[in-house]
Write a structure and sequence with these properties.
heterotrimer, A alpha/beta, B alpha/beta, C alpha/beta, A: alpha/beta, Alpha-Beta Plaits, five-stranded parallel β-sheet, 18 helices, elongated, B: alpha/beta, Rossmann fold, 2 domains, six-stranded mixed β-sheet, 13 helices, 40% helix, globular
Amino acid sequence: MSKKLKLDRRKDIPPIAISLESTLSIKTGTWRYFSPLHKNKIPPCKHECPINQDVQGFIELITQDKFDKALKLIRRDNPFAAVTGRVCYHPCQTVCNREYFDGYVSIAALERAASDYGLYTEKKKATRNKKKKVAILGGGPSGLTCAYHLRMRGYQITVFEELSVLGGMLRVGIPDYRLPKNILDREISKIVDMGVEVKTNTKIGRDIDIQELENRYDAMFIATGAHLNRKLNILGESLKGVISGLKFLRDINLGRKVSLGKKVIVIGGGNTAFDAARLALRLGSRTTIIYRRTQEQMPAYIEEIEQGIEEEIEILYLTIPIKITENNEKGLTVECVKARLGDVDASGRRRPIPISGSNFFIKADTVISAIGEDADLSYLPKKLRCQKGVITTDENGVSSCFKIFAGGDVTDQPRTVAHAIGSGKRVAMAIHKALGGKTLKKPEEDLPVIEHEKINQDYFEEQKRIETPILTPTKRMRNTKEVKQGLKKDMAVKEAMRCFGCGICNQCENCLIFCPDLAVERDSDSFKVLYDYCKGCGICMLECPRGVITMEKEPIE
Amino acid sequence: MKKVIIGNHAVSYGVMLSRTQVIAAYPITPQTEVVEKLSELCSNNKRVKLLKVESEHSSMSACIGASMTGVRTFTATSSQGLAFMHEVLHWAAGARLPIVMVNVNRAMAAPWTLWADQNDSLSQRDTGWLQFYCETNQEILDTIIQAFKISEEILLPSMICLDGFFLSHTSEPVDIPLKKDVDAFLPRYKPKYRIDVNDPHAFGGVTGVNYYFEMRNQMQEAMDKAKNVILKTGKKFKKSFGREYGLVEEYHCDDAEIILITSGMIAGTSRVVVDGYRRKGKRVGMLKVRTFRPFPAEEVRRVLGKTKKVAVIDRNISFGHSGIFFQEVKAAMYNEDVLNRPPIFGYITGLGGRDVTPDIIQEILDYTTLNTKPKDDIIWIGLKR
Amino acid sequence: MNFKVPKEEYMFPGHTACPGCTAPQAMRYVLKVLGQKTIIAMPACCWSTIAGIFPYSSLKVPLFHTAFPAGASVASGIKAGMEVQGQSDVNVLAWAGDGGTFDIGFQALSSAAERNEDIIYVCYDNEAYMNTGIQRSSSTPWGAWTAVTPKESPESHPKKDIVYIMAAHRIPYAATASVAFPDDLIAKMKKAKKIKGTRFFHILVPCSTGWKFSPELSIKMARLAVETKIFPLYEVEKGVKYTINKIPKGISVKEYLKLQGRFKHLKEKDIKFIQKRVDKEWERLMDRANNRID
């Protein structure tokens, strides 16, 4: 068929111009300058996720009503779907390409839906036990995630936890109304039930020597977090009635009673400050937050701020506390000055400059200090390199010492649940590799991230986002009921359909249908281009709704 | 069965007897009766489709389309209509389709005219169509039947010409053959190349400089072959129907000193004049040219080689040159030995339907007799002074 | 959005259309419906070369090239030939460009339609004589540059409303279609296939070479033409019943015009003029669809 027809002799030529062969002999592929290539890209949600979850993947499974499979896919990376679905700061939503069309997809709500409706089906205990043993210091999200991944691969794991309960910041930092304790317990038990040895009430340095651990175990993962409340460094900070934000949260979350009085002032602008303020509110106190910069500069998650304001927490911006004194009403008086914003400081934000003569006083029964947390490095061996108050590591948690790894809030990374989980996962892979395990090189790491311009919006209908339902302020202000509700199953499926599926081929066949040269064919569950005929027009690239096809400069292999 | 019919109706009967399957036509004087009779003859006949199209370009195009599917097709026209379909006349021949068309010779406008003249058909002489010029209504009917057979064998279309009004509207007795006899003579059309959904091909695509030349060469070869096929068919026709036709007809040419060359209805008038001269002892003869394409050059050379003078009567003119039959006869004779190459006189008469009477032909013969050789390329006969 | 398109192909790759040309798309979808039992009569147009030069053919169905004015008349002849041979179930498809439909081929088309010839006539419209080098036709829209209407004196006549003209012949079926909406084209062709008589299709086929835009935009251009109401998708049954198949988004014509080099020279007031006319024609079409006018 593709042999070129020869009509050299007079007798070869028919009396009329009747076709003798098809145009398959004409290789129009020689015309092109650019060649289309079907190659799945990385969607921005996955790229931005600190855990690098296959977000598009689990959302696609939800569109097919396969919640079990969706949850399984999440748990391939993240054993805390029910947690992250509730409390993660969801950078995936911020970079979601649908934002350029009719609004981002409610990814967090969908992650939670997977954990609400999906059944855990994996084996509780790992089948093969390797000889290698790993010690994990700290039973928080980072440590437990590392334990989960390593236990899956058969390592013998011991988790050492200072408190009587596992969970770290998830337990003692985040209040019930954001993360119900029974949900947390459920997630943790799934990990422990895999056969993880847990030693609670064990503080490193006090109850056990770190050197001994280093000797006994084949590798050690330090994930002790950052639980030291940063000092205010103002007069009166050690008065009775001035309490640490972290300690307040820890006490409440461990079930202890705390008496705050009628009026509470919280100093700080981060999640701890808001958690403390909103808990204080629920305990019956009127609460005021004092913050020295503006709302835009507050580190707390915007939804925490918005919900706090709805709950009628007073916030004083550009207010710097300079002194705390006892007053004659058996309470405290906090002297403050107003501030104005000056130049940008080391944190990249504009520095608050006190305005002299603007002093004023606020009374309170309790002052909660919540301006930041630091890591306790005192128990660490001297040889372990630390800098800027954290353990120095590379992006995989490898420290300056052989077979000692570190991750989570005790290392230099943003202090979020997702980052903690992500680092726990990466350290597990690093430990596995260091102990002789084989890891598959992920080919996706070389792929580009898909920009929103590559999405062909003509193929999508506008559809308003289904938001996470939230309890009204009146319904939630006086109790610790969960503020955010889950989506109903059918709503979750509907919202999941809004996902563009950026950069991932879903076999819509647009490329095949619109190719003018019939040069795109199916190839099992993908497509192949007939490069003998493709003229490089680029229609397939543009009509792919998801931007899977790129035009590569000739030649390509 | 003998019937007294006009020339146009002889056409209609010839077409129906030949089991034509698709007819497409557009009216133009003096052709109209052809189609009117056909519409009568094939009404309620499921085996014939008569397309009443909106122009001659479309009638020939429809015939081309139909012929390509493998059916026998026919159309008829005249003068302006023939000129309008000029583009697709080339197409039909190049596509090697055995379409048969009757052209009722009528002069070309401007100005408007309705009467007989051969410029319309002769203007199409380069298109690749066979051209027959008929003298009688019988010849018309017979030639149509033969033309289907000839065209289907050599794969070139045939144009059968008859003088407007003189033949088309004149009644003559015509022997209309029996259908079964025609069926025996003219079998079903079975083309080698046809449109077939079970064997799909493209026809007529752009043909480059490397192939077109050979295809044209093949067309000419078909024209060359046509001469024998015409003669062979003529003999077979005689066997079946008792009447024979060839490429030419020699009438008293053997010992003629002057030979008239004529075509169409003028040949009929010339016979009478030649008879008159012969009775007076004058040795004149007439060579009727029946097929103009393919041009019967060998026959012309054979017949004229023995005579002393030739007088060609053209009821046509190629402006800027001379009469067309005259040019072609001269060209055929040019390379002959000087002894076999008599002087050839070219007469133009009868344009626009002016009657070519026996007196006119007599004038032609007299002039030829009185002059050794022609002084000009055109000798106008019958013009007002 | 998944387009449901029949799988079988009746064309080969290797044809020599310009890269990004959408004319092959139109043929491809039409043949997917009409199938193997189809004969195509094709007058001079871009497809005359896309079909393949001798000795090649890019089609799996028989094709007969015809003289420029003769698309509809040759198709009529082919249909007659097939019917006398008892093969009435073979589709006879006349496939012509805008030149061969709106201009030189119009006479034969009008006649075939008046006789209600049992053929399907598809005009694939790239809005100029593209095969001969981008000269205007009576399908060229107002304001467009072509090789004979330079920017100093661009096309000054509006596009002929060919579907309305064909509807006036009271043929059983006439419709517009777009290569960007293959499911709509396929559904309409399926419907037309079952009807006897003259069926007319007007398919807009953007031409990156002649309209001067980058070839990958071809399908998007066809889509925009529909969504801006410049080329609405509708059908006309028996010449009087209008049905609009898709309510356009109503994107401003500017979004369409600005992508094409042939409209580069248009001023704001020209674009406003075009928008006004497009809106007016759309209103008129709506009125017809709602039986308010004929």
